[in-house]
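Recall that a protein's primary structure is simply its ordered list of amino acids. Everything else, from secondary elements to tertiary packing, is in principle encoded there. The following example makes that idea concrete.
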Amino acid sequence: MSISRENAEHYQWGNQCEGWHLVKNRSLSVIEESMPPGTAEVRHHHLEAQQFFYILEGEAEMEREGQATVLQPGDGLHIPPGTRHQIRNRSSRPLRFLVISQPPSHGDRVTEK
């Protein structure tokens, strides 16, 4: 069976942000997420999970250990375990991206104060 946003497990987070679990098992997580203009994730890191963010639509600003990088559609960024990071949508357009985590990052997150 193919998987898409229409049949994937859905959740909401932050300020009107959404996610769809495209792959969700003990060793791998692939999530499609969307963020409205002007929204941001909370700065955090993961103890064990490495992540790869891949931009599908819109423009993302990814802050990684204090360094900001602007990502366009077709751009990706690897986040090693323990790396403090935060994704933001500072643009006036919606942002849509994939987050690939190995192992899955849920339950492995440490939020910054």
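The chain has a mean pLDDT of 96. The first strand starts at residue 9 and ends at 13.
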